[in-house]
Amino acid sequence: CSGFPLSIFFIVINEFCERFSYYGMRAVLVLYFKYFLHWDDNLATAIYHTFVALCYLTPLLGAIIADSWLGKFKTIVSLSIVYTIGQAVLSVGSINDLSDHNRDGSPDNVPLHIALSMIGLILIALGTGGIKPCVSAFGGDQFEDDQEEQRSTFFSLFYLSINAGSLISTIVTPNLRATECGIHTKQRCYPLAFGVPAILMAVALIVFVAGSRMYKKVKPQGNIMLQVCKCIGFAIKNRFRHRSKEFPKREHWLDWASEKYDKRLIVQTKMVLKVLFLYIPLPMFWALFDQQGSRWTLQATAMNGDFYFEKYLIFFSSYVHLQQIVNPILIVIMVPVVDSFIYPLIKKCKINFTPLKKMTVGMFLASMAFVAAALLQVQIDKTTPVFPAAGQTQIRLMNLGSVPATVQFQPQLQSVDVAPKEATDYMIFKTSQLQSLNITSRLLNKTQSLEGLLEGKRYTFAFQEFGKDIVSNLMFDNVTSKPEEGKNLIRFINSYDSTVNITLDGKAIALLPPFNASNYTTIPGGNRQYTINSTTPLSSCTVSSKKFGFGSAYTISINDCAQGTLNITYFEDIPPSSVHMAWQIPQYFLLTCGEVVFSVTGLEFSYSQAPSNMKSVLQAGWLLTVAVGNIIVLIVAGASKLSKQWAEYVLFAALLFVVCIIFAIMATFYTYVDPNEVEAQFDEQEKKDKKDQGDREKEAEADSKM
Fold first, then answer.
1. DSSP H helical ranges for 484-568
2. N or C end of the chain: which has fewer CB within 10 A?
3. Do residue 540 and residue 613 come from a single domain?
């Protein structure tokens, strides 16, 4: 079809479905750890990167199986079955009702869910990692030796299918997660979010098997990995035995294996080791790249996700996931643009833009992406509220009355003037020093004891002049961080002179006696307005709320009712996130540009420089760099002990920049080879040797007859 083998279309469709399955599951994985299994940010991030690392460690196993025993086709089919089972187990493990026997909305047997989830993830890692080096190499096998241009286009098309699957799944699965499902109690629908990827993996398996008769299947050529390892081991051992100066040096240290192994294997091993040596710096790129799904996702939760086009184009259940689709969208756009315009333009300028130069540029762009992320994090930190540390207590003063007041913290700590219908910022005190506070309003005075306040907590002291007295309420603000997932918290305090029944959009919130406060109620983030209703025995009043934004907390004072309209006052406990998520787009753009020139090129480079019987092994080596990169994240993040997230971003950017320079130097010493040409020379030599051997045997036979 247009010069391409028809079989590759089955492979591309299979890859699309498999990547939909993988990235769809991964898009909600960190949130599943955090909100379903109730792990903290650091543990969720650590397990996430451990899983990703495992997904990229197992390609080595898959490559050995494919090249040594089963062949690529059977390996892909076998491990795809394991993959599908793993997705199904993970989906079952996320069913809340599986152990929610008391029907309170929380799993009663959390270890059961953790065990099922971990089993599922291990099977997924084995499946997706095992088939990863085989699928791309199997696609490359479908082309003839003279179809280099078509093969190059295939790798771009193959990478495009990966990101198309990623793009669609990253839109679909978060929305599936946002729906509520359950038998006894309605929860975030993780079973559906994980179940649909399981179905897509089954579809991928069926599509791949359907094209079986069209495939060009290269038979496995023995345990080549074992042969290579033995060849390297023998060369090192033999060189050590002959380390004396009396033995002449050889051109390459692997030539010391020539006493036991044939020259073809030695040359092929040299080719593989040359490429693997170049792979040493590459994990640092992936250490940065894969933080899109962890650190950058958590960064987005502290930002303003107010995208006005959501209601016009598509419904996004979680504004955090809106950012996750930026990378695949940019990939789908950038791959054809770079392939069809940028590279040809560079070629016309007569610039020798070799694969290794492309990869160097990709690493530099990724480094700059993390510089952009660090600059953005600095701005986010400026808007993040400060919460009390150990040994500290925060107190805020709230004057609900119509006259000013002065508050004196005892013993002579601080004096604060508070205007009517105003609140101060949170003030930090050493808990051990707080004894009491004294309120003075006109001619009225009141003293409030502050003994027994908890360390590391926030309190709001609300007061109001009421007749000939000052009424007050010391409220415990049970909030020590910004609300999760961009949600908002609101509570009500009744400064009216009678008991009020408060509802929010018809939903009962609290029945509040005078000067009592409700607990915080969680509402979704966004620009939605709510109808607040206050009912007393004598009246009923309503008012439309303000737009609360994302990640805010408010105390709403119920003041009075006039002609059916409720009079309220807003007090900002935690300000909404003010840094817009659109500011993440530059870092995504830089990282995506880096990925296009680094990853696509790396796939093609790995295949083009590999001997025919070691292509899956070299592909696995390429994917192994991703695993090491995720391990680097765990090591660096754990060892750096940096308290500021922006500093960690700068650290990663600096490390990759240094590695980029090292890789550029290494690349200048690399000599490109054509494995097919080298192997053709060996084939020709073997034919000549066989012919010479035959001629000698004939001559010997003729001589014997004489």
1. none
2. C
3. no
